[in-house]
């Protein structure tokens, strides 16, 4: 199974195989959903790794076992350059059998392809990531690119700086950049406005916390609606009532959801009281 043609639209998600402590760098799913098209697992490899292809084999098997996807699955390995790759015996047979494809970013001219530069963000030296991310946000607005690209930039930096909170990542990228996108205006603006209104009555600190919770809940509800369509009233009510810490856990979990039943399973198994 090869990669689909460039005319096919995909949506980016991040992905963690929690049970087995495997964390992949991303997942592209067809948008709109189409079981005939492959899911594309992303693995960004910045350093030489003699056991990379063995690890990919394990991660791919784990993903298929854990999520039982209806789509075929392929893997895209992103290297900064060819010298990083460590070739294994019978590599061509391995690549064909496991559906593994490779990209060498040094062979893609910078600043000529927004898609190529979004991929390059995953393997740049840390000192360059924030500045390049800010530039990508500017180009996304300028080119009127899909707002999923903004999510890609934010999620990539969350992965690159795992010790920093998402709010800190947004500050690093520049709040002005993000607030000018319709997606973040709708999601965070709504929560902020509601929190401000509550704060007038209950106090500034409590209103701010409430606004953060409502903003997180609104964001997740929008993401879930985009992923699965309309949610049931019970699902919406339950998610809207979750505290911020559990909303963050749901935000991580939803990245691995493939059907709406996964959401029901999470809501039933995760402690909500």
Automatic annotation (TrEMBL):
Domain DUF4351 residues, every copy: 210-267
Region Disordered, annotated ranges: 195-214
Record InterPro entries: DUF2887, DUF4351
Transmembrane annotation, as ranges: none
Pfam families for the chain: DUF2887, DUF4351
Positions with biased composition (Basic and acidic residues): 195-209
Identification of the protein by name: DUF4351 domain-containing protein
Organism ancestry: Bacteria, Bacillati, Cyanobacteriota, Cyanophyceae, Gloeomargaritales
């Amino acid at each position: 199974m090869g990669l689909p043609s460039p005319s096919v639209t995909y949506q980016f998600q991040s992905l963690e195989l929690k049970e087995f402590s495997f964390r992949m760098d991303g997942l592209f799913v067809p948008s709109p959903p189409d079981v005939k098209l492959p899911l594309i697992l992303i693995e960004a490899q910045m350093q030489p790794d003699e056991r990379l292809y063995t690890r990919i084999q394990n991660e791919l098997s784990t993903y298929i076992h854990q999520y039982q996807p209806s789509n075929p699955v392929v893997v895209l390995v992103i290297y900064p350059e060819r010298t990083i790759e460590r070739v294994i015996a019978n590599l061509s047979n391995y690549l064909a059998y496991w559906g593994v494809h490779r990209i060498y970013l040094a062979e893609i001219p910078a600043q000529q392809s927004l898609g190529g530069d979004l991929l390059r963000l995953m393997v740049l030296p840390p000192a360059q990531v924030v500045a390049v991310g800010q530039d990508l946000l500017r180009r996304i607005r300028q080119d009127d690119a899909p707002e999923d690209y903004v999510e890609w930039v934010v999620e990539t930096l969350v992965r690159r700086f795992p010790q920093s909170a998402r709010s800190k990542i947004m500050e690093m990228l520049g709040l002005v950049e993000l607030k000018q996108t319709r997606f973040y205006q709708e999601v965070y603006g709504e929560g902020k406005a509601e929190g401000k209104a509550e704060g007038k009555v209950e106090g500034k600190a409590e209103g701010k916390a409430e606004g953060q919770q409502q903003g997180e809940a609104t964001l997740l509800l929008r993401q879930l609606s985009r992923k699965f369509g309309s949610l049931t009233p019970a699902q919406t009510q339950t998610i809207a009532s979750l505290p911020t810490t559990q909303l963050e856990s749901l935000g991580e979990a939803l990245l691995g959801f493939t059907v709406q039943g996964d959401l029901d399973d999470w809501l039933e198994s995760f402690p909500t009281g």
